[in-house]
């Protein structure tokens, strides 16, 4: 295992400590229990937004703490949901009296730990609502399973709900916007290479030199299907078509096209994939209103990418365009 | 001969040892059908319990130990296993209440409450390829052993053996809950890491009971 | 070779085509000869700033085209300096009558091709000045060699000179600012893994599972030294000390600390490295006034990182903080 | 017997062939001490020249061909090699002017002008481990062959052999120019890719001359 680390057990603490110094203008970091809070939290009268989950997906979530997006992020151990304690601490830290929204990716661990924290916060008199993101079409949705994973759509939910909260909407309204974004977002990913969890020391799976995983998640979990490497355009089609069919997206729709790198993918490849995705959408009569291309929700050093489509409405566009000032997403200020 | 606080403490120490020993094995099982952290998570949790055992006030009961395990796992493990095991130990603790010595029936009730806690939190059914598939046969075996008049140690032995068999029996299953469910059919052919850790913990309980650490 | 590409010969064209669609609000792309121009170029009376070089270093340089930074970028083939034609075309496209600054990384190919383009532009009546960046302390500087490479410092030169030009400084003044930034910047990098040039199909070098390259460049060229993998803090020290001694940076200095990923490095590792660098600077009495952490000048999918220090003065800080709106660096608007 | 336009065109075609054949070899040499693009760069350049040969107007001279190569390489190769070779061919073209047939002395002058162009642009000295280390011995060998009365083909043969030896002789050198200089001592033990491509191009020139393509 080759990593720029000192000790597998200290990776998250040391990295968050660096993040705290580098972005002291935007965030404050509390180390015990570890959570990252917007420098000016709590903001009286504003709905607080907290997200979190296992580490290894950076810039998600700490990179999205700041004006117009999250009020706090709770980083767990690598690929391990945080426990309720830091989630509760973060929830209290950002409560400005208007309630707190938890944005939770749909993984059993995240859901259970956030649930517990929400219960405890409720007992302390803080009103908490949770929105669970589950946009990954690679996983079959069913009442009898753990359901779909929350992946790329989570970033979009955090940005748009964050803007809604910043503009003073109520907890119910912010939660409704978040739900609408999640309901209109679909994603699918693939990997060229696996990743290695520091404490595991071994790659999450192995792939032959000519194989790729289709339908990969963001935790180094193997995907649904292993195929031979194909040209980029074919791979894009393989990800995009299940997405398009699922909602479904239709001619005339306006969308945000999000091409996301898994952490080890160079930009040159992401834009190349973006080109094909844009071409397919144009053929289908779908208009790209907004774009996001880069490593925004990752899986350590994994090479690969995911595509997320979000069907937009005017309100979502307005919130997407609203100013945001975080370590990883910034515009308008 | 009932199981007392010494058994409970010994169970925890043995649990920490066995989880530590099998850390890499559990990580590898989880790498195959999950995200490769189960061994690390469990090890972190039980290592956090150990020092707290020393601070247990005099007169503590098995139920106090179980509660200590519950709260520590909840606040240190994270992931799916943290809340699930946490709830199991919490419910187990409630089930035995303030009793100072547990007989076969009490142990069977403890296990049943633990299993029910896992199901209440995780909503998994038997055959979903989760830790429930180790706990449910264990609970059933414990119940019939207890009904047959077995003592606490014998009840735990029956439970441990059934849990071990249950863990092995998860191998052919297709997962419907937890991270392995994302793999669909590809999850078959691998043992569920949580079922395996459950079997290890129940084995530790049985060994602690048979090892005369109880009064 | 595993890459998200269609054909090694079309990588740059297809990727730039994607970039053009994704950032149509910021840039315009001309395909023959290929160059990327700020959407509102030329800006009358403003010094134009053009940079460029081989592709594979994204977001450098196209990602820095936009308000407050570059007016144009010229992407060559992967790791191959562009020819004079597109440099000339870009120079003409951004000439607003106040002259054009070329920011050139110090590689023989870049220097020669930009030189030729500048000569041709001069013949067309455009005043061109060139600033050659050479901040890499891993390479011994000497009159008798090709000299130091231009690496991380280039990003800082582009930002700060870009702001100076945006604020209306003359060509001489913008060039002087750029020179001053370059003169006060020092960098050094390392790699955990090599990268693979698409048309080469083989990694640029091979490293054993326990080896790393110290003093790596950004073209997959092997570094100065191959050592056994060490803890992150030791590696940071190994890069930072030669940097500190070179200028030298001294107690009381105010600096910008830039921890840059080589393309395949996850953020969690970059911030971990940043933490140690900040610690060392604090010990030395050097104040971190500004920070930049991320993949900003890369080497395809290479894993590794570089550290750049820039000794700041008030003017540089003002230009650093000035609004910028590019695909890869954005704040203040 | 002088070398005319046919020789010049044949030289270019052979150059394109030999560069294409040795593309991977040149890439590999450049991977070892550079950035792995030299073979690709040269191949792209000469492939771009080929179609333009068909458009040469009637009455073109060897100098016209050299100029066409120069401008095409400059506008398609990029990197260090593009401007350096471009300048070499441009200066070589000037050196032969409008002559329609080149004798031994003219060929020696052509090579000398080419080498001087490379040095003027790149500022490398002999022993810096660059293409100059193939060109300089070639120019020297050509000059003495021409001085000894050799015909154009023999001058090119002498130059080609010397260039080949010069390329081999770059192996032990420590680079002081170009990308390989960043490696310092570690650049020793590898042949310079530009010296190797130069040797290939001069060999192509000699073969075109000896192959009776000249009038
Ligand atoms: N819904 C559930 N009900 C019961 N057990 C579950 C459930 N989901 C997951 N598990 C158990 O949790 C184990 C995984 O634990 P762990 O790896 O620590 O957490 P995570 O999946 O969050 O990484 C699985 O092997 C399984 O036994
Ligand atoms: N200053 C120089 N003078 C002469 N030749 C040089 C000089 N710099 C580089 N070269 C030649 O250029 C070759 C590399 O060409 P190429 O790989 O195409 O360009 P780049 O180094 O830009 O990738 C080297 O092998 C060397 O022979
Ligand atoms: Mg996990
Ligand atoms: Mg796990
Ligand atoms: Mg090159
Ligand atoms: Mg090269």
TrEMBL record, chains A, C:
SUPFAM superfamilies: DAK1/DegV-like. Keywords: Glycerol metabolism, Kinase, Transferase. It comes from the Bacteria. It is an enzyme of class 2 (transferase). Residues 7-331 form the DhaK domain. GO terms for cellular component: cytosol. The keyword Transferase applies. One of its GO terms (biological process) is glycerol catabolic process. Its EC number is 2.7.1.121. InterPro entries: DhaK_1 (IPR012736), DhaK_dom (IPR004006), Dihydroxyacetone_Kinase (IPR050861). GO terms for molecular function: glycerone kinase activity; phosphoenolpyruvate-glycerone phosphotransferase activity. Pathway: Polyol metabolism; glycerol degradation. It catalyses: dihydroxyacetone + phosphoenolpyruvate = dihydroxyacetone phosphate + pyruvate. Homodimer. The dihydroxyacetone kinase complex is composed of a homodimer of DhaM, a homodimer of DhaK and the subunit DhaL. This is phosphoenolpyruvate--glycerone phosphotransferase. The gene is dhaK.
TrEMBL record, chains B, D:
GO terms for molecular function: glycerone kinase activity. It comes from the Bacteria. One of its GO terms (biological process) is glycerol catabolic process. Keywords: Kinase, Transferase. Pfam families: Dak2. GO terms for cellular component: cytosol. Residues 6-207 form the DhaL domain. The keyword Kinase applies. Transmembrane segments: none annotated. This is Dihydroxyacetone kinase subunit L. It comes from Agromyces tardus.
């Amino acid at each position: 295992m080759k990593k720029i680390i000192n000790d597998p057990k200290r990776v998250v603490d040391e990295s968050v400590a660096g993040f705290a110094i580098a972005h002291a203008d935007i965030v404050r970091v509390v180390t015990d229990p570890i959570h990252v809070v917007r420098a000016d939290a709590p903001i009286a009268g504003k709905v607080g937004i907290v997200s979190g989950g296992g580490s290894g997906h950076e810039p998600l979530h700490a990179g999205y703490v700041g004006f117009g997006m999250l009020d706090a992020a709770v980083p767990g151990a690598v690929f391990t949901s945080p426990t309720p304690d830091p989630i509760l601490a973060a929830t209290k830290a950002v409560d400005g009296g208007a309630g707190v929204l938890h944005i939770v990716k749909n993984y059993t661990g995240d859901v259970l730990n956030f649930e517990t924290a929400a219960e405890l916060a409720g007992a302390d008199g803080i009103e908490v609502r949770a929105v669970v993101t589950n946009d990954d079409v690679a996983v079959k949705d069913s009442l009898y399973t753990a359901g779909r994973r929350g992946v790329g759509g989570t970033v979009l939910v955090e940005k748009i709900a964050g803007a809604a909260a910043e503009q003073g909407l109520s907890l119910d309204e912010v939660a409704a916007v978040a739900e609408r974004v999640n309901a209109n977002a679909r994603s699918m990913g693939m990997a060229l290479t696996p990743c290695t969890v520091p404490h595991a020391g071994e790659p999450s799976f192995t792939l032959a030199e000519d194989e790729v995983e289709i339908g990969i998640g963001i935790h180094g979990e193997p995907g649904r299907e292993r195929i031979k490497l194909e040209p980029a355009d074919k791979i894009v089609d393989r990800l995009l078509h299940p997405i398009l069919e699922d909602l479904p997206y239709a001619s005339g729709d306006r969308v945000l096209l999000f091409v996301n790198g898994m952490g080890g993918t160079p930009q040159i490849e992401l834009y190349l994939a973006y080109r094909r995705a844009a071409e397919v959408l144009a053929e289908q009569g779908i208009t790209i209103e907004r774009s996001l291309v880069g490593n925004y929700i990752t899986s350590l050093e994994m090479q690969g990418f995911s595509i997320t489509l979000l069907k937009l409405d005017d309100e979502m566009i307005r919130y997407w365009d609203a100013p945001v000032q975080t370590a990883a997403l910034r515009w308008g200020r | 001969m009932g199981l007392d606080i010494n058994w409970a403490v010994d169970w925890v120490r043995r649990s920490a040892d066995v989880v530590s020993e099998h850390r890499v094995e559990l990580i590898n099982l989880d790498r195959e059908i999950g995200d490769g952290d189960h061994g690390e998570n469990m090890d972190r949790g039980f290592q956090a319990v150990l020092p707290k055992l020393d601070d247990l006030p005099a007169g503590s009961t098995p139920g106090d130990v179980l509660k200590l395990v519950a709260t520590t796992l909840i606040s240190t493990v994270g992931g799916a296993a943290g809340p699930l095991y946490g709830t199991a130990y919490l419910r187990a603790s409630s089930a035995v209440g303030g009793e100072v010595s547990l007989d076969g029936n009490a142990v069977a009730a403890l296990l049943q409450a633990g299993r029910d806690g896992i199901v209440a939190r995780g909503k998994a059914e038997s055959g979903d390829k989760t830790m429930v598939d180790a706990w449910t046969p264990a609970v059933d075996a414990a119940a019939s052993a207890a009904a047959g008049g077995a003592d606490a140690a014998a009840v735990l032995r029956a439970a441990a053996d059934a849990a071990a068999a249950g863990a092995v029996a998860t191998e052919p299953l297709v997962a419907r809950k937890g991270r392995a469910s994302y793999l669909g059919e590809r999850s078959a052919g691998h043992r569920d890491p949580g079922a395996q850790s459950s079997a290890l913990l129940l084995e530790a309980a049985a060994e602690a009971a048979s090892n005369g650490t109880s009064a």
